[in-house]
Amino acid sequence: MTVPTVKNIFDFDGTWYAVTYNEDKTGFDGVTALTADGVNELKNFYGTVNVKFESAFADLTPVSGASIKPSNSEEEVTYQAEGDFNVMTAPVLDNVYNLEFTSIKDSNGDVIKATGVGDDKHIRRNGDMTDVRINFELSNTKIADWVTDNLDFDKSYVTITNSENNEVYNAKLSRNASQTLAMPLRDKDGNLLGTDTYRIAVYLYQTGSDSPAEFKCDTAVLLDNIKTSSDVGVNRYEIIPEHEYYPIPNPIPSIVKESDTAFKTINIGNAEFKEIDRNEDEDIL
Predict the structure, then answer these.
(1) Taking 50 as the threshold, does the pLDDT of residue 14 lie above it?
(2) Looking at per-residue confidence, does 10 or 165 come out higher?
(3) What CA–CA distances, in Å, run from 146 to 136, 141, 150?
(4) Is there a contact between 64 and 28 (Cβ–Cβ < 8 Å)?
(5) Cα angle at 104 between 102 and 109, to 5 degrees?
(6) DSSP codes joined into one string, the chain
(7) What is the pLDDT of residue 259?
(8) What pairing do the DSSP bridges indicate for beta strands 122-126 and 220-224?
């Protein structure tokens, strides 16, 4: 595909003039050559201009009080005026586009409420986050009616990074002012996205620009996809006989049970304490 050349129609080495016309618009009423500052201001004009082309076998430099159509006292001058069409002129400027994150909803269209403030503001999802929809709107701050006409959709994109600020996912924008990002199940390499904190950012390129404007969503998505194992539990226990009133002369060995898997039940046995009649001078039975 051939990439069109972006050209500023005001960028040339000739002289620019600011002119006014007489009442019937047949001649110039005032003519002023623009200064360097005036030319720079013209080159940075962002908007729509009306373009006409004039040609003649004569000097077309505007002169105050002269006729628009050139004349020659000795012979008729061939003169042609064509064009009269509008051109969108959009030099690369700062802050041309704005982006507003409007809502975070689930796949049913219900708003997902965030918790926390500042850097801790987030929504939480268990298992996966594929039901999360991040909605945002694009707008042109210079000419509102242009909306996205001056936006380079081939270069603009949305990205997702993890808690280590590594990019795990990116996608091109749709060619609309209203955008929706459906949070993915897998990263850009096809791996399942695991437990982590994920943040969203959008990068917008103005047509002709090599550097994007960055817009970050202030709400992170905290994903917890750790599944509880059925093997969680006790796989070793030990029973140690002990009497709280007096020591046992011949300790009973402790009982140890171990298993490669978790015990479903733990049997600690059953015992009954019985005091035996005795004299303090006698041996303890």
Answers:
(1) yes
(2) 165
(3) 18, 9, 7
(4) yes
(5) 105
(6) -PPPPP--TT-SSS--EEEEE-TTSSBEEEEEE--HHHHHHHHT--EEEEEEEEEESS-----TTSBSS---SSSPPPEEEEEEEEEEE----TT-EEEEEEEEE-TTSPBPPPBSSGGG-EEEEES--TT-EEEEEEEESS-GGGTTTTB-TTT-EEEEE-TT--EEEEEEPPSSSEEEEEPPSB-TTSPBP-SEEEEEEEEE-BTT-SSPEEEE-S-EEEEE-PPPPTT-S--EEEE----SSS--SSPPPPEEEE-SS--S----------PPP--TTSPP-
(7) 78
(8) parallel
Angle at the Cα of 139 from the Cα atoms of 49 and 147, rounded to 5 degrees: 40
And the tokens for 31?
């003519």
Sign of the Cα pseudo-torsion (53, 54, 60, 64, in order): negative
Distance CA(63)–CA(30), nearest Å, equals: 8
Quickly count: other Cβ atoms within 10 Å of residue 79's Cβ.
Answer: 15
pLDDT for res 285:
45
pLDDT category, 7, cuts 50, 70, 90? low
Q: How far is CA 285 from its chain centroid?
A: 81
pLDDT at 244: 60
Sign of the four-CA dihedral 149, 155, 161, 164: negative
Locate 88 and state its tokens. 């969108």
Q: Could you count the other beta carbons within 10 Å of the beta carbon of residue 140?
A: 20
User: What pLDDT score does 77 carry?
Assistant: 63
The CA radius of gyration of the chain, in Å to the nearest whole number, is 40
Is the pLDDT higher at 266 or at 42? 42
Structure tokens at 49: 């201009």
Angle at 253 between CA 250 and CA 254, to 5 degrees: 135
- The larger pLDDT score, comparing residue 62 to residue 244, is at 62
Amino acid at 95: N
